[in-house]
Amino acid sequence: MKACSNLWKPNIFQQVGDVMSDIIASPSVRRLAGQKGLDLDQLADDLGRQTIAREDLDASTKHASPRTEQGRQYWEVDHTQYGLVTEEPLSRFAQLTAHNLAAAQAFIPAVTHHDQADISAIEAFRASLKPEAAARGIKLTTLAFHVKTLARLLHTFPRFNASLSVNGETLIFKNYVHIAIAVDTEFGLMVPVIRDVDRKGLWQIAAEISDIAKRAQNRKIRPDEMGGASMTITNLGGIGGTAFTPIVNPPEVAILGITRTQIATVWNGSIPVPKPMAPLDLSYDHRVINGAEAARFMVELTRLIADPRRLLT
Is the same domain home to 143 and 281? Predict the structure, then answer.
């Protein structure tokens, strides 16, 4: 395997407050745009997104992008002819997120694998640690166990801790484990990153989750705390739902979604046993990961969650 330097590129949720870069394009694309005399800002506006690829430049030099014209017709509607309306401008942060999510959905052939994990052992373990958690002043959440489990699996399944090169011809394996946590804030979705999760214990992970969640709500996340993740976790457990299909956050190749834990009946032979089951949703880039790999990943994920003692060894 060819060693390479840190090829960090901003992910689609990198922007925090001040926009770091409006246009996401590789150096070769920027160079080609300059040679063709193309305005990347105008092209991004025409396409309705911020990510520009080489094929976008080729299309723009041949003709006005038909995809743009076809796409715009769905939104160019006078809604007032149907009744009263009000308008609310999207923040710059929300606009960038929307553009880049649309680009991610368009460029990545994503598939979502759904499963459930028995978290009864985690809940019992957390309950036994309540006095210590109180003494430490740390809230030990189930999410900390999910983060720790994911960090373990990224060593076992290295393709999930990889990114495609810009031309899609090379797979870049990362020798680090950084987990991004999606945080819902009043001004939009923010995804700060916990670095080197595989080298940290549960208490430290729990403390960092609490810290980044609080600072994200207060817009105190620094630019260097965004981007460069191995994989993202998006947790809707505190809100609700039984399943969803999270959008892969490029340049990552997978994202793990979690929804609200439900009590389900699990049969132990002929005996019904109520168990707290956490729904899990793994979306992945099918160019890098196939269905069998995703299924094996989820089988191992649910096995580790069901027996958290394995995480401590």
Answer: yes
